[in-house]
Amino acid sequence: AMLRLRLLTWDVKDTLLRLRLPVGHSYAAEARAHGLRVQPEALGRSFREVYGAQSRRFPNYGRGQGLSSRQWWLDVVKQSFRLSGVQDEAALTRLAEKLYRDYCSSHNWEVLPGAAETLSRCRQLGFRMGIVSNFDNRLEVILSQCDLRHHFEFVLTSEAAGFAKPDGRIFEQALRLGGARPEQAAHIGDDYSRDYRAARAAGMHSFLLRAAGQGEGPEVPPEHVLPTLSHLLARIEK
């Protein structure tokens, strides 16, 4: 059956962009530049623990609790280093500021294979395009730095929306921004519950980017699964 699609919305992390290095390795390299020795693996474990706790305590970058996303991230970075044994508060502040800036750039992010070509082709086919991402307000800059921003009519982050996926209200905002009804729109992402299932719950079509041999997740109809982004075009060609 032909999908009558007008709007495509996209997740970003691990759909269009990925980190060049694991967080622990990037943080440890930056620490070394400040004369501090920290084990990348230990730092990675600390980061995951701190990030999880901060996300539970202050969801969506503390947006509803009077925290700026910048402060939210500076706290995460500092606590990750503290948990890994770094005590020097002045060094922690410098490190946190530097890393907050560094994650704004293509220095730390790379475009996934096939992403730029697929986005160009979708635009050539006349689809309206937007981003729907659980991200803070640095995302516009990151997408520009990675030369992807021009593909999209809008960039909707959870920080700007006030709701994070899988909350259906972020998809409702995206549909308004894209001027489309749910059945005229499809969302593409790599997370089963936040992307695939949440978009469908909002009445949209959706496709799950799931590399072959990537863990056994919940059952998804094969025609909704994308082994790579370049498979999208066959699914939606007008």
TrEMBL record:
InterPro entries: HAD-like_hydrolase_domain, HAD-like_sf, HAD-SF_hydro_IA, HAD-SF_hydro_IA_REG-2-like, HAD-SF_hydro_IA_REG-2-like_cap, HAD_sf
Superkingdom of this protein's organism: Eukaryota
Entries under Gene3D superfamilies matching the protein: HAD superfamily/HAD-like (3.40.50.1000), Haloacid dehalogenase-like hydrolase (1.10.150.720)
Pfam families (alphabetical): Hydrolase
GO terms under cellular component: nucleus
SUPFAM superfamilies the UniProt entry points to: HAD-like
Family named by the database record: Belongs to the HAD-like hydrolase superfamily.
Protein name: Haloacid dehalogenase-like hydrolase domain-containing protein 3
Source organism of the structure: Gymnorhina tibicen (Australian magpie)
